[in-house]
Amino acid sequence: MAFLKTTPVLIVDDYNTMLRLIRNLLQQIGIENVDDATNGEEALAKLNAGRYGLCISDWNMPVMSGLDLLRQVRASEKLRRLPFILVTAESKTENVIAASKAGVSNYIVKPFNAETLRTKIDKVFATA
Question: Taking 70 as the threshold, does the pLDDT of residue 73 lie above it?
């Protein structure tokens, strides 16, 4: 996770409170270079324009869901290898299966803390 201290992480959520919460949790685990987007379309534009080391996206958002954003990322030649974590309040088995089929790197169920976030990120990069 050392390179994430300098490589930007993009967090995507339509609620500013969740953006702040995830940003604070990332800072608690030593990740300072954080950018954000409030929907999937904005995130996709930022991902295509920038160079990010990780995307952490909410599942349920207007305009473009996190799952649809993940599918767009995996379909992109430039972005397909980007580590991608989906965040959701629902732990339905069918959601986990859909996210896995779409190529999610990891999955976090709300609420979560800094240690859970660190563990999920560590697992993503252990297999990368």
Answer: yes
